[in-house]
Amino acid sequence: MVEPTEAEVEAQLAETEALAESLEAAVLSGDTTVTHDELTQTKSLVGFLRLQVAGAKRRAAENRAKKRSEAIRALHDEAVRRVPDSGTKLVAALQKVENAAKAFYEMADDYDAMLRDWRVQLNSLDIADSQQEEGIGLNGIGQILIDGKTLVLVDGGQHLNKLFTGGTPYGKLVPIRDVDQGNKDLRDHTYKVLREIAELR
């Protein structure tokens, strides 16, 4: 048997209350066609329907509470299921980024060192700024020229800083909000947070 909804019971109650009021009014106006049983049964039904409305409201509230509890539990279970794996993947991804950035920095540093060494060699060969011989030399500000093309220092650290932060707290790739912390502290804090995520059980 399908239980009536709260709205259906309230509608029936309103209709029955209106009928009871009209019967009472009829009796008061002298209508002798309204019987005692008819009026008593209608008023009794009003009381019964009021109980039904209260019961329907209580059941509806219980159902809402049950669904809310189930939704909260489902969210908790989803978090417990998904967060540890996400934390592990984030740690691995961050380590790849760090390793790649380190490799880039070291490669750029080696390249810059090579250019500086060539400049020293050119100076030792009495090639000053703005001079070229055999397709190699220095321009007016001491940068190396190869067949007329200028070779500039890479400065890997500067490029990495611009890539990840754009020189601002909310940068090009990654918005680093803890700008007041030292770089090492920020890095260690990041790994700590991600490892704690990965360890959630």
Describe this entry's structure for a reader.
Strand 2 and strand 3 form a beta hairpin. Strands 1-2-3-4 form a four-stranded antiparallel beta sheet, with helices on one face. It has 201 residues and is mostly helical. The mean pLDDT is 83. It has one domain. It has helices spanning 6-28, 36-124, 156-165, 183-198; strands at 132-133, 136-138, 144-146, 149-151. Helix 1 (6-28) packs antiparallel against helix 2 and helix 2 (36-124) crosses helix 4. The protein has four helices and four strands, in the order ααββββαα.
What is this entry, summarized?
Helix content is 69%, strand content 5%. It is mainly α and 201 residues long.
Topology of this structure?
Elements: H1 6-28, H2 36-124, E1 132-133, E2 136-138, E3 144-146, E4 149-151, H3 156-165, H4 183-198
Antiparallel strand pairs: 1-2, 2-3, 3-4
Descriptive labels:
single chain, 201 residues, mainly alpha, four-stranded antiparallel β-sheet, 69% helix, rod-shaped
- Secondary-structure-based class equals mainly alpha
Query: Spans with pLDDT under 50 lasting ≥5 residues?
Result: none
Count of DSSP strands: 4
- DSSP strand content: 5-15%
User: What level of helicity do the residues show?
Assistant: 55-70%
Number of helices: 4
Q: What is the N-to-C succession of helices and strands?
A: HHEEEEHH
First-to-last CA distance: 44 Å
